[in-house]
Amino acid sequence: MNIRELAKALGLSTSTVSRALNGYQDVNAQTRQRVQDMANALGYRPDAGARRLVRGRADAIGIVYSAAVDNLGNPQFLEMASGLSDRLEQDHLDLLLAVAQHEGEWSMVERLFRGGRVDAVIVPNTFVQDERVEQLLEKGYPFVAYGRTSTHADYSWFDFDNERGSHLAVNHLLGLGHRRFAYVHAPLELNFASQRHVGFLAALRAAGLDCPLSYQVSGVNDRRGGLGAVARLLALEAPPTAIVVDNNLGGVGVIRGLMDAGIRVGADVSVVVHGDIPSDTLLPGMHVTTVSQATPYQSGQTMGDMLVRVLKHPEAGPYQVLRQPALIIGTSSSLCRN
DNA sequence: TGATCTTCACGGTCTTAGCT
DNA sequence: AGCTAAGACCGTGAAGATCA
């Protein structure tokens, strides 16, 4: 069923049918109702390809992420995508999730734009130096970055105050009497990891403390990495009394590793984790102290809102939202006993 | 003259007809 | 067989036509 067949069934031109279905005011109300009724009865749906061809719009937003980053294994990512999708739906925009398996992320982004498959993209997992952001700016493609980069002045982004989050974590642990810290973090090329790392070290320095390199475990952004980090830290001559982890999945791995080693988390060692612990995580009796952000669903909705504004009112941009974190105190942190 | 409807051109890709 | 030109596909929107 295409518009031509629908128009023939109604005895109208295709144009009148199109205009009736698209809310043009110069179509008689009765005609409009008749067209809508017939379209419903015959199950008419406009051909998305043809519509895209004419409008020059895809009515879709894309997120391209690398298969190397385990986003789909992170419930927070899926929750964010859900919030994003819900918000976009209000403006009749679809969300297109694409995985860059072998092809580079930027290459896929460019292919989606050139093919008219998306009107704008979300740039997830931003790097300190991010080719995707630089290329998007150069080509003039609309986007919202989920996180800043080192050059964050001239484009739209949504981010958290990561440095402040680290200050909250460190100050909380300092207040509990901890002096020997370890830091477990994602690769520092990632902007959020870089900012949290800077904040962590600055907060320690402000207290006259240091975190030697042997107490810093890099490249941890999943559960397995967290387990490995614990093995390294427990092998130290003087293991840390407090561990800060800059990402939630790594944090789950660290806590699991400590528990498996027979260490009482929150009693023998205190742990603070950036980001919320996935609700399906099996850490019985454990309420993890976290540096909490807005819920991922809310973040997704906010970015959806920003994308709509980027598309409708680009001249009023760039749109930039910096959310403040809050410390949620659980049972994984307590007074230092050493 | 305003309300309502139709005609026609447009876009990129694919198929088909016609030619060498 | 290989190439090129023409036309179809589909929905939209500007411009034009019709009618009361």
TrEMBL record:
GO MF annotation list: DNA-binding transcription factor activity; transcription cis-regulatory region binding
* Superkingdom of the organism of origin: Bacteria
Q: Does the keyword Transcription apply?
A: yes
Q: Which Pfam families match?
A: LacI, Peripla_BP_3
Looking up InterPro entries in the UniProt record yields: HTH_LacI, LacI/GalR-like_sensor, Lambda_DNA-bd_dom_sf, Peripla_BP_I
Q: Which UniProt keywords apply?
A: DNA-binding, Transcription, Transcription regulation
Which segments constitute the HTH lacI-type domain? 1-55
Question: Which named protein is this?
Answer: LacI family transcriptional regulator
